[in-house]
Each structure stands twice: as structure tokens, then as C-alpha cells.
Design a protein that fits this description.
The complex is a heterodimer. Helix content of chain A is 0%, strand content 49%. Chain A is mostly beta strands. In chain A, strands 2, 4, 5, 6, 9, 10 and 11 form a 7-stranded mixed beta sheet that branches. The relative contact order of chain A is 0.33. The termini of chain B are far apart. Classes of the chains: A mainly beta, B mainly beta.
Chain lengths: 114, 116
């Protein structure tokens, strides 16, 4: 399968715990994006990378959130000291610089904080 | 002000009929792009169609077409010959500015249900 892959698909965690999600983009895509989607809403932009450089971060990305893409390939999104309000679907997408085209999305990681 | 407005929370359409999903947008940029995505219950966002602000022709992709009315700032999605598999959430989205795909603002979505 050459699509965008996200792991895990589902995560249930206790409030206050740290969680980490992984995204493996399509191999030739140099751009990688993270979005958060809450129930009944469209995805909200969190951050994006071009290769290993994090070029833009949303104000939604509080100090408890950190994203990395150390080798310009896969990316991780970590949430520290999770809160119930962090419960959402976290979507990853990848794309190519220079093309005004779509980004390809993964199936998302659904986080539930209890 | 909302950048992307989808006024139809839910829509029903008879199988094999055409349906139009509404989307209006708000931007002061001259260069922008408009997207439509489909999100089935599995959660994955599936790209359907793209329209650039400078494109003179309406975009088409198979059974999907985008009715782009720049002066009215609307970018409605038309699905022809609806199929049961078209039942899903549909999101309109906009990328502002030039320089390729950066951050994109999504609407709140329209839930489409196709009736046999």
C-alpha cells in the first residue's frame, strides 16, 4: 500500500498521560501536514513540514503539542499531559511542493482521553 | 467571519439523480484554491476536485464538477448520477495565497445520504 499510513488507528488514554502518533507519508512527498478534527467539524490545520523543516504552526498547537519529522520521512505528533479536550481525530496528509493539487490524507488516529 | 461556509448540514438524494452541495468562501487574496473532499465513515479524507482561482473553466473529475462563480464567491460541488457509495460527509476547503499547498481551511461539512 503506497498511501499515507497512520498509527495507531485508535488510542484511549487517561487524562494526564502522554501519547505519540506516527504518520508515514507517500514516499516521494516532501510536504507533510497534521490536522485535528473534532466531532461535527471539518479538519483544523495544526502544522506542516517541508522535508524535515517545520514551516508553519497553528495557534491550536499549544505547548503540550510537539511534532517532528527528523529525517524528512515519517513524522510524529506528541501530546503531553493529555486533557479531555484533546479527544479528536488526528489526520496526517502529504503532498509535493510546487503543485497546486490536493494532499493525500491518511485514515487518521482517533484519540479518546478518559 | 467564516472563511468557508457550508449551509447544508444534511442532504438526501435519490440514487441516479444529481445533487448540488453548496459552498461559499471569503478571502481577500487574488490567488487561492478550492477543494472538495469526501469523508466516509471510515474517516479518511478523499480528494475529489480542485479549482484554482485563475482557472477559467469549471473543474470536472468524472461524476464530480465544481460550479465556480468567482464574483459570488461560491464553489458548489455537483455530483451527477448519485450512487449509494456516495453517502458520506463532504467538505469544501480553501487554500489562500500562492506557493503551493500550505494550510487549508475547511468548512463544517455536508452529510449526503443517497436513497435507493
Amino acid at each position: 500500500d503506497t498511501g499515507v499510513s497512520q498509527n495507531p488507528r485508535h488510542k484511549i488514554t487517561k487524562r494526564g498521560q502522554n501519547v505519540t502518533f506516527r504518520c508515514d507519508p507517500i514516499s516521494e512527498h516532501n510536504r507533510l501536514y497534521w490536522y485535528r478534527q473534532t466531532l461535527g467539524q471539518g479538519p483544523e490545520f495544526l502544522t506542516y513540514f517541508q522535508n524535515e523543516a517545520q514551516l508553519e504552526k497553528s495557534r491550536l498547537l499549544s505547548d503540550r503539542f510537539s511534532a517532528e519529522r527528523p529525517k524528512g520521512s515519517f513524522s510524529t505528533l506528541e501530546i503531553q499531559r493529555t486533557e479531555q479536550g484533546d479527544s479528536a481525530m488526528y489526520l496526517c496528509a502529504s503532498g509535493i511542493t510546487g503543485l497546486n493539487t490536493e494532499a493525500f490524507f491518511g485514515q487518521g488516529t482517533r484519540l479518546t482521553v478518559v | 467571519a467564516q472563511k468557508i461556509t457550508q449551509t447544508q448540514p444534511g442532504m438526501f438524494v435519490q440514487e441516479k439523480e444529481a445533487v448540488t452541495l453548496d459552498c461559499t468562501y471569503d478571502t481577500s487574496d487574488q490567488s487561492y484554491g478550492l477543494f472538495w473532499y469526501k469523508q466516509p465513515s471510515s474517516g479518511e479524507m478523499i480528494f475529489l476536485i480542485y479549482q484554482g482561482s485563475y482557472d477559467e473553466q469549471n473543474a470536472t473529475e468524472g461524476r464530480y464538477s465544481l460550479n465556480f462563480q468567482k464574483a459570488r464567491k461560491s464553489a458548489n460541488l455537483v455530483i451527477s448520477a448519485s450512487q449509494l457509495g456516495d453517502s458520506a460527509m463532504y467538505f469544501c476547503a480553501m487554500r489562500e495565497g500562492s506557493g503551493g499547498y500550505q494550510k487549508v481551511t475547511f468548512g463544517t461539512g455536508t452529510k449526503l445520504q443517497v436513497i435507493p
